[in-house]
Write a structure and sequence with these properties.
five-stranded antiparallel sheet; 452 residues; 11 helices; alpha+beta
Amino acid sequence: MTMKGRNWIVGAFAGILFLFMQAPLFAWAGQEEDSEAQPDFSLYAASAALIDAQSGRVLYGKNADTPMAMASTTKIMTCIVVLENADMEDTLQVSSYAAGMPKVKLYLKKGETYTVKDLLYSLMLESHNDTAAALAEHIGKRYLSQELQNKSTSDFTAEESRMAVAAFASLMNAKAKELGCENTYFITPNGLDATETITLNNGETVEREHCTTATELARIMAYCVGQSPKKDAFLEITRTPSYSFSANGRSFSCTNHNAFLNMMTGALSGKTGFTNKAGYCYVGALESEGRIFVVALLACGWPNNKNYKWSDTKELMQYGLDSYFYQAFSEQETAISQGDLAPIPVEGGRTRILGETAFVPLSVQEDEDGLPGLLLREGEEIQVECRIKKNLKAPVESGTVVGNIYYIVDDAIYRTDTVIAMETVEKIDFAWCLEQICCRFLQTEAAGAQGM
């Protein structure tokens, strides 16, 4: 071997040895950076999210934006859509389609009559699949032809029932879009696994699955417990330990299977779910000292690992309780300085004395629907950014928007207040100039007469 060849081998070996020695350092540095971003939990769930219910901010995520099947956690959306579109004392009739849903079920019978209220408790406490279909048909039929609206649901064919359920699923999807859930798609009201083919406007077809993400499932629960006009009814139903009712000569008793309600102080609500595809799923909410946390878990084990979801939920909830404190945007450290709101010069604006520069004073118009504050962990700060125009051109109307104040954490804007002009500044024109000249002339004449 030549000297050149030996030198090349030695150099290559030295390079490899250097990289090998440095590898642990590089790996450690990367892990350290990740650990600073969020804690390292040993969760069973394939997908998990912990969010601040009031702001929607994700406090922890594990594959949190990956669409997955969600089983009966679907029913939180079914429940809130029914509550927002029906009276609790409404009655409905059962179709053969609804009665034919698979277990778990209340064993409804074709032609029976029930109240919406009774079936909502059946839906949320026992997670009955047949009650979900019956409720969906009751609401969904309103969006069918007039002939089908007038037809008793108990007389529906299977195809007509599927049409009513599809109409209800459209309401569920519309609500999901309203809440900003872009990766959620509902096909069934009970969470049974489903796939459907959709034809696009260009004639192409796509396959859609019944799915959501951990983040979006948590967002839906946050809406149910904190923002929906029917949140009180939702909480009353989902927090009830047991519920009994009689109908059609039969008696029923429903028991709440959300064990989390008795696991942690402040537990608000929750819903379990399981299918062979989805595995064990859970979404739950907890309130403490004005803070509301929501945890969503997808694919959190399969039989016989039914209790994994409880340990994951408690671990994430405890992390939220221990690590996040509430800070109002109006607190001293995030307040706007008076210098930020100094009057703005108005080019071409009228002034009390001809030749002076016009200025317009400013005021902050707070967003009445905006967040009053945010959950932060130690070391985090709310950044306040004022984007206000440096100057204006006359005329300026009182109330004109001249800028915004943004409250930012981790590059995300959580509140926006508006800065407005407090006064009207008219534009200088010929008539105003003539008036000013005449006034000044008369003042000069008057001053001269007094001096004589």
